[in-house]
User: Which sequence fits this backbone?
């Protein structure tokens, strides 16, 4: 499936980037010229494929092959995208940024969740990866793991994995057989997904095998 998505973008992106419509924008309307040809992430949605560059998103409709650009002039709340992921059950695209900002793109609205970005802490807040599990989105960030409740559109929890509660950069996570696996800059950490104290570093163990 991923190979089909990849080749779809290889086919469409050059024509999108180098065959721009040169007509003037309508009076009173903004037009963007953000470069969208260098993709940093791809996600499959409901009958759509999304490709993200640092400056915006390209959405390709699988049914009719129409292409839509999504940038700051058409809905996004920030620049320098670092990760995207689409949840088909809730039909929402999550857009993470290098400064920790987060957008939830629903069919008819964009919800901004700036809690990580606005947090008064000294740490790298970049959202590295987004993983869905049930109604939650798990953000792998420079702080640790941030849990977003999609239904409530808010931050639910924060998991700090570093020793003595220090921030530890998490590159990605996965759920396997009731365990959460977190790939960090300091190795692989695991915890039971049902542990009620996942916010404490004491609930996480570094794998040595």
Assistant:
């Amino acid at each position: 499936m991923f190979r089909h998505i990849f080749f779809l973008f290889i086919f469409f992106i050059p024509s999108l980037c180098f065959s721009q419509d040169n007509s003037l924008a309508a009076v009173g309307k903004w037009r963007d010229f953000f470069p969208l040809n260098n993709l940093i992430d791809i996600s499959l949605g409901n009958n759509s494929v999304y490709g993200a560059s640092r400056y915006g998103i390209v959405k390709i409709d699988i049914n009719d092959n129409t292409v839509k650009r999504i940038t700051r002039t058409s809905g996004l709340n920030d620049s320098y995208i670092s990760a995207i992921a689409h949840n088909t059950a809730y039909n929402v695209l999550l857009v993470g940024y290098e400064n920790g900002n987060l957008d939830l793109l629903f069919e008819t609205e964009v919800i901004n969740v700036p809690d990580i970005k606005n947090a008064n802490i000294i740490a790298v807040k970049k959202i590295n990866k987004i993983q869905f599990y049930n109604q939650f989105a798990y953000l792998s960030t420079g702080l640790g793991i941030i849990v977003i409740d999609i239904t409530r559109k808010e931050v639910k929890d924060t998991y700090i994995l570093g020793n003595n509660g220090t921030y530890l950069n998490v590159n990605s996570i996965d759920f396997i057989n009731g365990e959460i696996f977190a790939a960090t800059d300091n190795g692989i950490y695991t915890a039971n997904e049902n542990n009620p104290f996942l916010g404490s570093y004491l609930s996480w163990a570094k794998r040595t095998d």
